[in-house]
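EI: anyone free to look at a 178-residue chain?
SC: sure, send it
EI:
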Amino acid sequence: MVTADVSARLAWPDDAAAITRLQIASWREAYGEVVPDGVEELDPEVLLERWALLLERPPDARVRALVGLEHATVRGFVLVHPSADADADPVTDGEVGELVVDAAHRGVGHGSRLLQAAIDTLRADGFTRVRWWVGSTDDALRGFVTATGWEPDGAHRELADESGEARLKQVRLHTTIG
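SC: here you go
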């Protein structure tokens, strides 16, 4: 029986272009109705520059991106960091900032592998609790996350663009990893 060559590892600066491509595709799919075309957050050059900088010189040693690979091809990524929520302890509360898997490669284990790598990384960095803001209407992601033991903690927020027009409603999930 032949098995796929799959893995997860810390992202390298050379991965910035693949991460940018995946993030733009994911945001268009998930937030296309909320985020209009032409906004800076979806500008490939701006995103590529941000990712390259983050991967080369993260603002905190505990800000990490990991990539899910199939052979040498990036199929997904996850970003983890200390939680910046007002009610968080930045020493013990980590956060999954984003987890994206290429739409054409979902359902084959990349998301599970990335989530486990994220938890292992957060635990190694000394976090004991983890938070994750997910779209309130993203039933697929919320179902995936809650199936692995995460639970809503009752917190919610609404993000708006600069004009105050586009709104993204999110709920916060959490889990203990200590």
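EI: The mean pLDDT is 90.
SC: 👍
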